[in-house]
Design brief:
This is MTH538 TIR-like domain (DUF1863). The chain has a single domain, classed as Rossmann fold (3-Layer(aba) Sandwich). Helix content is 37%, strand content 16%. The chain is built from 5 helices and 5 strands, in the order βααβαββαβα. A 5-stranded parallel beta sheet has the order 1-2-3-4-5, sandwiched between helices. Helix 2 packs parallel to helix 3. The longest helix has 20 residues.
Length: 166
């Protein structure tokens, strides 16, 4: 059994790589509290690899993850090959899902992939403070909501953003 302490980040590698890179920069910055243990550090799935080889490496990453973060951009809902598969695997594994809207929306919007319809997930805008808050708090909320049989899209109340200075 793998020690699950990683954050699995799924995104549109063709269009939204800069947001993932920015997350990594937040992690390395000395003046922010943002931190996550990146599952992408486990292995290197490359576009030049065969699809099954890539999926095998992605499964390994997810097996070591305690939370699934989906960066949602304009094209994310149209991605069928890997992102849809990653979402479905996260759901199957029961991982807490944090959906990060790159358009800064605080709730589920039209860019969300349909594979998340009816699934328990929190929706937040892209930003280091709210993302850190979600990484620290959503997993326990997710666990409680699952025990209560709750599903669907959740979002934080405005008071949370006010407390964070957002």
């Amino acid at each position: 059994m793998a020690y699950r302490n990683k954050t699995y980040v799924a995104f549109d590698g063709d269009n939204d790589m800069r947001y993932y890179q920015l997350m990594k920069a937040w992690k390395q910055s000395d003046n922010t509290a943002f931190n996550f243990y990146d599952a992408h550090d486990i292995n290197s799935a490359r576009d030049s690899s065969q699809e099954e080889s890539i999926k095998r490496q992605l499964r390994e990453r997810m097996a070591n993850s305690k939370v699934f973060v989906l960066l949602i951009g304009e094209h994310t809902k149209y991605l069928r090959k890997f992102v849809k598969w990653e979402i479905e695997l996260a759901i199957k594994k029961g991982l807490p899902i944090i959906c990060v809207n790159l358009n800064k929306s605080k709730q589920r919007d039209n860019y969300c992939p349909s594979s998340l319809d009816g699934q328990l997930a929190i929706f937040i805008p892209f930003g280091n403070k709210i993302m850190q808050y979600a990484l620290e708090n959503w997993p326990s909320s997710h666990e409680q909501y699952r025990k209560e049989g709750k599903t669907g899209a959740y979002s934080y109340k405005d008071i949370v953003y006010q407390r964070l200075g957002i």
